Amino acid sequence: MFLNLTVRALDAMQIRRARKLNYLGMLSAVLVGMILLGATVTAAVESPQLEGCGFFGDLQPGAVSNCAGRHLTGGLSPGVDGCPKEFDPTRSLKFDDDLHARWYARFWTGRCDGLGLFDFCTEEAGGWNDTVAAVAARVPPEDRNRARAELWAIGRLLGYEWARRNDIRKISTADLMEWRPAFEKEPDPWLAMRTLCVKAIGKLQTEARSK
Question: In whole angstroms, what is the distance from residue 33 CA to residue 131 CA?
Answer without folding.
Answer: 43
